[in-house]
Design goal:
CATH class: Mainly Beta
Order of helices and strands: HEHEHEEHHEHEEEEHHEEEEHHHH
Largest sheet: 9 strands, mixed
Shape: globular
CATH superfamily: Jelly Rolls
Strand order of the largest sheet: 1-2-11-8-13-6-5-3-4
Helix content: 25-40%
Mean pLDDT: 90
Number of domains: 1
Bound molecules: 2-oxoglutaric acid
CATH architecture: Sandwich
CATH topology: Jelly Rolls
């Protein structure tokens, strides 16, 4: 069930369409943002803070990142025809290959990335020339975001890529830099109407198949198998993120992200520690993942020992660390 707090703030937008409110960031102060959105964990789109930012098209990214190496996920489209319970990896658990940015950009230009759903997803920007962008730091300051849980991450993909329905244990800001994304969101209260993957997957697949992902395809749900999803549909929010928009996604909020168009789409995100601590401490979605992390111990130890004795030890250890 939605809480009253969620309802009040979200209804700033047209509630019949269940859209997330859009607010002009130039009128915000850290205090207003904390009071209206962060304290209770209410998603919101903040506009107007990135007007002076360069357009991060493929040429710009090639110029800045060129030969820098990144892990690139080779998803393929076949998996989307299957029951998600049959997948043996998801999100950052998908097998990645290390490519230079230029090589990945070639896959995008030739449409190979579109054909095989190849994603440069959640790649840390620290140690790159794009690590410290003044206008992004100013936007963070305007929102009073001071305790990062990660460095800024780059997400570059072919239009039509879908990041499946999931939630994160930290607050996030998703910043749309080039092209557009459509997000479908559900409040944390809907978790059991969204059929999260079982925690027991951690024992078998470790961090490759995390329990913060839903078994349901929200755009094409199997209502016979997942009947409670009908209830979640009454609580479905949708937002289109345009270039220059910042979406605040509070910890525990479910979201599926679709990149729009048939070109290239680029975003940055960053995760933030959840404040106030009372919200963190009372988030069951967060605790579920901590429990899951404990359950990965046997898999992580087994994989670590195998990596230590393997010929490509460095690569295997790097993959393991990337998933943590
Ligand atoms: O943009 C994407 O593909 C995923 C982003 C995301 O899940 C997030 O920012 O939390």
């Amino acid at each position: 069930m939605k809480t009253i707090v969620e309802d009040n703030h979200l209804s700033q937008a047209d509630d019949s369409l269940k859209q997330i409110a859009r607010i002009d960031g130039r009128n915000l102060t850290p205090e207003i943002f904390a009071q209206k959105y962060r304290k209770d964990g209410i998603p919101v789109v903040i506009t107007g803070l990135l007007n002076t930012m360069n357009s991060w098209d493929l040429d710009f990214l090639r110029e800045k990142l060129g030969e820098q190496k990144f892990p690139v996920r080779f998803n393929g489209w076949e998996r989307y025809k299957q029951d998600k319970n049959k997948w043996n990896n998801i999100g950052s658990g998908v097998e990645s290959r290390t490519l230079s940015f230029n090589d990945y950009a070639d896959l995008l230009s030739s449409k190979e990335a579109h054909k095989n759903d190849i994603y440069l997803g959640r790649c840390a920007l620290n140690k790159t020339p794009l690590a410290d962008i003044k206008v992004l730091a100013e936007a963070d300051a305007k929102l009073g975001l001071k305790m990062p849980g990660t460095s800024p991450n780059l997400w570059v993909c072919p239009g039509s890529h879908i990041t499946p329905l999931h939630y994160d244990p930290l607050d996030g800001t998703l910043i749309q830099i080039y092209g557009e994304k459509r997000l479908v969101l559900f409040a944390p209260s809907q978790t059991y109407n969204l059929y999260p993957l079982s925690l027991f997957n951690y024992l078998r697949h470790g961090l490759k198949l995390r329990a913060n992902y839903s078994q349901v395809y929200p755009e094409n749900p199997d209502l016979v198998k997942f009947p409670k999803f009908k209830k979640a549909l009454a609580h479905r929010y949708e937002v289109i993120l345009k270039q220059g928009d910042i979406l605040f996604i509070p910890a525990g909020w479910w979201h599926e992200v679709t990149s729009m168009g048939d070109g290239v789409v680029c975003s940055i995100n960053r995760f933030w520690h959840v404040l106030p601590l009372t919200r963190a401490a009372t988030s069951w979605n967060k605790w579920r993942l901590h429990l899951g992390a404990l359950m990965t111990a046997p898999y992580v130890i087994k994989t670590w020992v195998a990596a230590m004795f393997s010929k490509d030890r460095e690569q295997k250890l790097r993959h393991l660390v990337q998933r943590l």
